[in-house]
Design a protein that fits this description.
The protein is mainly alpha-helical and 174 residues long. The protein is 72% helix and 0% strand. Helix 1 packs across helix 2 and helix 7 runs antiparallel to helix 8. The chain starts with 7 loop residues before the first helix and ends in a 5-residue tail after the last helix.
């Protein structure tokens, strides 16, 4: 992935945190440790992030932006949604290691918070008349299915998992 010059510092901080999480318990990692590993000062860390959790939130957001940038169409039918979900699951699988680190540190709630925020934003923009609870239904479904898939070693093919999600979403069309 290519980074704009102003993103390099953030990138190094994110990478430093995940490298440290690979070696140490999350709660034992300090901002000083992250800054040292990233090759920046504590003040630089705090210029970009308020906390370790904010580093993880940035990682999730940055990963999402890169994924969206790679998309070339908006889904309009059931098959399109299946393709999008397959892409999301493939991205999830590509990021299996960092997500496992979040799970090991009991930080998977950051992933759920991220999904909730994204689905709420998407539904407000694209489906303004829908129930206020609908985005949480979709976020919860994706979260629970993806975490169960992770716990199963991402053994099934993304297309099979995506089909289960699509079947649930479009259940009333059967």
């Amino acid at each position: 992935m290519e980074y704009a010059p102003e993103e390099y510092t953030r990138h190094y901080i994110v990478q430093a945190l995940f490298r440290l999480m690979d070696e140490y318990a999350y709660e034992k990692i300090s901002v000083t440790d992250i800054a040292r590993k990233a090759g920046v000062g504590r003040a630089t860390f705090y210029r970009y992030f308020k906390s370790k959790e904010e580093v993880i939130a940035y990682y999730l957001e940055h990963t999402k932006r890169a994924y969206i940038f790679s998309q070339h169409y908006f889904p309009r039918c059931k098959e399109d949604y299946r393709d999008v979900i397959i892409g999301v699951l493939e991205l999830f699988r590509e990021n299996e290691r960092p997500i496992r680190m979040l799970q090991r540190a009991r930080l998977e709630y950051l992933y759920l918070d991220f999904l909730n925020k994204e689905f709420v934003s998407t539904f407000e923009r694209d489906h303004p008349g829908s129930s206020r609870y609908t985005p949480y239904l979709y976020a919860g479904m994706l979260y629970n299915v993806s975490m169960a898939w992770l716990n199963n070693g991402c053994a099934e093919q993304p297309a099979d998992v995506a089909q289960a999600l699509v079947d649930a979403i479009f259940a009333d069309e059967r």
